[in-house]
Amino acid sequence: MQWYEATSKKLEAGHRYSHQELIRLLKSDYPQMRNSSYHWAVCGMLKSGNLTKVARNVYVVQSEREKPIYHPAYSDLAAKLISQVSDKYPSVYFTVFETALMNDFLNHLVAQNTVFIQVEKDVSVFVFRFLQELGYEHLLYKPKKADYALYWEKDCIVVTDMISEAPLSATAPHEICLEKMLVDMYCDKLISSAYSKSEYPDVLKQAMETYHIESTKMMRYARRRGREDEMKKILEEIEDAEA
């Protein structure tokens, strides 16, 4: 538990606070701290999600419950694939991501769409063959980055293995949840090749400001993908820029 959480809990939901007002409240509750600690505490409140920056020097207390849950707006192709694969393999864990979904967060939009079907290991090859039998063209199975670049075509369908312990949506298990999407955008070599990674900090910032995100779930998955420290650094840089 952080030392400033008692002050954080006193803040009124919906009230707009200036940075100076937050510092004053913290000093009132904890007069023994250094000045730098109060500024650090405001950054901590932002990081925890208890506080949201809505303008320069303006912060609002916003319950995470007030933020909407992200639901992907799939293309007709992606929706059809979800229906066909789930009907054929009703007990198989898989999620569908398509690069067009990133356009909700990018400044430079992805023009050509690619659908990724991430399937639990040892079953993905059967899903791939099933889609072949259905007559889908432009299919790739676990391609290396060089092969992906060489054989990719418009509306390509890529079947890959799902990372173990990947976060899944509780209400729609085949829809990609935002925590997984954000980590995959950064960690997956094929997905990240579809956009400029220089935009990623802005993507992460916008997603966290707009939608409910379980940070613990997101960072646990980043750890599974071996990139937890890198994502933590990006989050810290976002917080420092807002301070």
What keywords describe this structure?
single chain; 243 residues; alpha/beta; Arc Repressor Mutant, subunit A; 2 domains; 4-stranded mixed sheet; 3-stranded antiparallel sheet; 11 helices; 7 strands; 13% strand; elongated
Mean pLDDT: 89
**How is the biggest beta sheet arranged?**
4 strands, mixed
What is the ordering of alpha helices and beta strands?
HEHHEEHEEHEHEHHHHH
Q: How many structural domains are formed by the residues?
A: 2
Number of strands: 7
Tell me the number of helical segments per DSSP (H or I, 4 or more residues long): 11
Q: Whole-number radius of gyration?
A: 21 Å
Spatial strand order of the main sheet: 4-5-7-6
Amount of helix: 40-55%
